[in-house]
Specification:
Elements: H1 7-16, E1 24-27, E2 36-39, H2 42-98, H3 104-110, H4 126-141, H5 146-179, H6 185-221, H7 224-229
Antiparallel strand pairs: 1-2
């Protein structure tokens, strides 16, 4: 005859069963990095590792987007500067072509059907324009000796080449780092920020040198103030 246990015995038997507890251990690293959790639950560890990896990839993706935007800004500024230089050169060539050599403008002023004093209103022809440009160039270089002018020009060319080489070097490092194996995200971010900061400094120096070139270009073409002084 089979004996059936009473309900109280069943409850006692269930209460006596003890499940093993999951032991966890937290390890904190330096530099405020993420903590690593070691446990006896492999499934939970896999989910946690996957979540951390997804978060790291998201942060790395946003960081790469920021780098691409900075690089695109530098490229756009360089293209814009090249377009401006080409436009100014073409405009200067067109202006020179329109200046007719001879007495066409002076004759037009003298033979006008209304009273005009040719000494009060005079239109510059090509010869006068070249004379003004030569005078401006001579005035700007008169206080410098040929040796100092050559030395300054050589130093300027050397510095321009150094800036261009440094910009290419930093840009190449950024592009190369993106194609290499992913390392520590914190170190990559810190290094990229340092390189972007140096790129901004070089960009500021390039802007200052372009401003100097623009001022020299205005003096070379001859503005209204320079004409009045002459």
């Amino acid at each position: 005859m089979r004996m059936h246990p009473s309900p109280s015995c069943r409850q006692r038997a269930k209460s006596d069963i003890k499940l093993p507890r999951v032991k966890t251990k937290t390890i904190t690293k330096k530099n405020n990095q993420l903590t690593q959790i070691i446990s006896n639950d492999p499934v939970g560890d896999a989910y946690a590792a996957r979540a951390r990896e997804e978060q790291r990839l998201i942060r790395l993706k946003h960081h790469h987007i920021k780098i691409n935007e900075e690089l695109q800004k530098v490229k756009n500024k360089e293209l814009l500067h090249e377009w401006k230089e080409d436009y100014r050169t073409n405009q200067q060539k067109l202006h020179r072509k329109r200046l007719v050599k001879g007495k066409d403008y002076q004759e037009a002023v003298v033979q006008a059907p209304f009273g005009i004093d040719p000494h009060y209103i005079s239109v510059m022809d090509k010869d006068q324009q070249e004379m003004v440009e030569k005078a401006i160039r001579y005035e700007s270089r008169r206080n410098r000796s040929p040796e100092s002018a050559m030395r300054e020009e050589e130093e300027r060319r050397i510095r321009d080449r150094q800036i261009q080489d440094r910009i290419r070097e930093i840009t190449g490092k950024i592009i190369k780092r993106r194609s290499e194996v992913r390392g520590n995200a914190y170190e990559e971010k810190r290094q990229a920020e340092l390189e972007l900061r140096e790129l901004r400094k070089l960009e500021t120096e390039v802007k200052q040198r372009r401003t100097q070139i623009d001022s020299r270009f205005k003096a070379y073409t001859g503005d209204v103030k320079a004409r009045k002084k002459l």
